[in-house]
Amino acid sequence: MAINNEQTGETSVAVPTIYLLRHGETVWNCVGRFQGQQDSPLTARGIEQADQVARLLRDALCTDDQPFRMQISPLGRVRQTAERIQAEVRLPCVADNRLVEVTTGSWDGMTRFEIDNQFPGRLDGSDAFDWYFRAPDGESFDEVCRRAMSWIADVQHPTIAISHGLFGRILRGVHLGLSKREMLELPVPQDGFYRLHDGRCDPFTG
């Protein structure tokens, strides 16, 4: 089945099954601080979420007997999550820099309140979904889409991928051929994951 990307007009062949996970809740998630490519550790709740997702994934794989591999973002919060996943799903993992979170450049590690104070006017007219791409030195939406498409194009085996909230939205959106707005409005749970296969994106939650 071919997958058409509405943003670029490109069509690609279907890829193997991907289970796409997000890291558990972090300290900065709790205070509304956008981490980007900076980092903060999982909270106690984030560890519980990672353990729950590990059990869900283990059960899903019991009915999916394909030979899976695991790839992860190199950031600490994902590595911490991956350790919890590996307690239930005993696969080695390989870090891939393309799975890293979207960076907002000098805005990484800041709240929207701090950005609005230090960069007056840059967030004017933005909303909760599109402000990420207003940073003067961050990644552009098109750059992130190309990164997502590059990673998807290289998936040759059934894969468990552990990534991030915003980048996970864009990965799913590229897979489904969604518009920019549709991608950015996708939900990003930390207590479940998605199965990407044949142009579909099926949620798994506890």
How is the largest sheet built, in terms of strand order?
5-4-6-3-7-8
Question: What is the number of helical segments per DSSP (H or I, 4+ residues)?
Answer: 7
Tell me the distance between the termini.
Answer: 30 Å
What series of H and E elements makes up the topology?
EEEHHEHEHHEHHEE
In terms of structural class, how would the helical and strand content be classed? alpha/beta
* Mean of residue pLDDT values: 92
Percentage of β-strand residues? 15-25%
Q: Bin the helical content.
A: 25-40%
Low-confidence stretches are 1-12
Shape: globular
Task: Describe the structure concisely.
It is built from 7 helices and 8 strands, in the order βββααβαβααβααββ. With 206 residues, it is of the alpha/beta class. Residues 1-12 have low confidence and may be disordered.
How would you explain this protein's 3D organization?
It is built from 7 helices and 8 strands. Helix content is 34%, strand content 16%.
Fold blueprint:
Blueprint: E1 3-4, E2 11-12, E3 18-22, H1 27-30, H2 44-62, E4 69-72, H3 76-86, E5 93-95, H4 112-118, H5 141-153, E6 159-163, H6 165-176, H7 180-184, E7 192-197, E8 200-205
Parallel strand pairs: 3-6, 4-5, 4-6
Antiparallel strand pairs: 1-2, 3-7, 7-8
Helix pairs in contact: 2-3, 5-6
From the structure above, extract its key features:
alpha/beta, 6-stranded mixed sheet
